Input
Amino acid sequence: MNHPFAAPFLLHGGDYNPEQWLDAPEILEKDLEYFEKTGINTVTLGIFSWAALEPEEGCFQMQWLEDVIRRVWDRGIHVILATPSGARPKWLADRYPEVLRTDASRRRALFGGRHNHCYTSPIYREKVRRIDQELARRFGSHPAVLLWHVSNEYGGECHCPLCQERFRGWLKERYGTIERLNHQWNTAFWSHTYQDFSQVESPSPLGEHALHGLNLDWKRFVTHCTADFLDWEVKALRESGSRLPVTANFMYDYTGLNYGKFRSSLDVVSWDNYPTWHKGPEADTAADCGFQHDRMRSLLGRPFLLMESSPSSTNWQPVSKLRKPGILELASLQAVAHGSDSVLYFQLRQSRGASEKFHGAVIDHYGGPDTRILKETAQVGQALSRLREVAGSSVPKQTAILWDMESRWAMEDAQGPRNQGLPHKETAMGMYRALRSLGLSVDILDMEDSLEGYRLIAAPMQYLFREGIQQKLEAFVREGGILVMTFWSGVVDENDLCFLGPTPGGLTDVLGLRFCEIDGLYDWESNRMVPVSPAGEEPGGVSFARSYRCSQLCERILPSSARTVMTYGEDFYAGEPVLTCNAWGKGQAWYLAAAAEPDFYRDFFTQLAAPLFPERPVSDLPEGVEACLRENDAYQYLFLQNFRREPAAVSLSRAGSDPETEWTCVFGSFHGVLDGWSTAVLRRKRRPS
Ligand code: GLA
Ligand code: ZN
Output
């Protein structure tokens, strides 16, 4: 982070594609009018403009862009400026076929689509560098421009000969000798031993895909290549003298890249959120979005940007459902509540033709001022302007969930105890929702993150232990932290080789147990978790008054020093431990051996986490209500949001209340009750520390 981004206000606006309307100046004029009406203060330009900016090789035409920037800036509207590398012009693909991507079956693509170029191709790199430099020279210190939006939703992979060569070089650097690679990938299996790096090929459905080490390294390599391409673009901008901060927009739960590896290149994280509202209960959708927002914020531990969202529906999901009135504001403010300094849409004006012509937009084909969406976006605009002072405030560190992409890649690739679906997300979400229902903030971390400053860390199904994670977790517990680790953790090492000896590898002392066996359950099967500790002897102060259902995966574990808190109720392992607690240093290490029903997580974390955070302003939220805290030096802001249609009662804790630091409502209305689908923001002065 070299050029930290500090949002001067909460950004409101989004992707704007005037290049599709250059022959219709009256439309562009109308847009400006609507921007003003809806409180749009930021437009993102240039994302897919390459063909308009460089219609022929080396011939740049940037005047139209300059005109648009000037016209929006005349009205005080800021610009996020994109580099156009997300989609290339036809001349580039025709003249230099090497820029076209090759898929895993080794087929080279024809021209078309987007996000489909080879990141290794020296020609692609050079052409991108040229146009990025041109943009940076021309606009890189323009007062309207706030930020670089580098490319668009980096993703995918290329298996062309250039990428194969680069992959081999990367492997050579990683392993040094082919013997070491053979050992780490366990290539003796099925006689897949390599004699030389030159023989290695990327995984393919037509060839090698059984070596998990290869699959994992390929994914790491794809991340490396993509992050390196981002760096290449950033370098081009910097070389041309631009000092503006940089972002790249990420996608929802995207598993093609390890976003954690991009953070050193970014000044601010941004992402695109397209939830399927009304497909299920809104509270579920909200929890899912909340988790993603928290992951994005945690990447840099600073405010992030909501770069794209739809003001109404999308047109690429199986069903394009409209957001019912009120959801736009609720969903938009949810992003802000979780740490976003923006609400940006895709897109401001709906395309007239091609594949996104029916995607929701602020201004639609009808083009008049009397539309529901214009009215609702204007409302969001007003809300953001009232909440302006929240920009830049941070979210306090309280609890964290480990959610590591490399571990997930390896776990999902492994053929193991349940190939018809692993309860990874359910387990993480069970824990997440439990912690959130207690009014706690949750950071979503990976194994590279520092664990300092947290009081409770949950580690659901951390199958692969990356180098050094055991030491970090051990120190965390020793210093007084509470760790909750689950089944199917610490099974393999950094290279996807199974740990030999007792597991979870390297943590058996801290957890006070070892893994014995794991039972995969059919969908129709379940077991029970039965409380066992006699009253007055509850390890960690935790006790349960009832049994809970568990399913999908049940591990048999053997405690050494850990104390058993619950046991299995059924099957041949009935009576064996399913929940244990081990005292370690000043802290506790818990182990949950099976995938539990959601109520369990709520009852468990209520007992575990509640005493750790007596100072939190709300402590027990009804289902579907979220509370989020943001703070700056002067104030704390409490966002209360009700994702249910019915009103909900919320009580604020009175702990340490004094008139100097009373909550006052600065947005929406709140008198102990929140209306259905509504947001209230309360503010209080911070106590001098
Ligand atoms: C993505 C892209 C946008 C647009 C939207 C549509 O997020 O970045 O260009 O295609 O999807 O929802
Ligand atoms: Zn390639």
Q: What stands out?
A: The domain at 625-685 is CATH 2.60.40 (Immunoglobulin-like). The pocket of zinc ion (ligand 2) is lined by residues 102, 118, 120, 158, 160, 162-163 (CB under 6 Å). The chain has a mean pLDDT of 96. The first helix runs from residue 25 to 37.
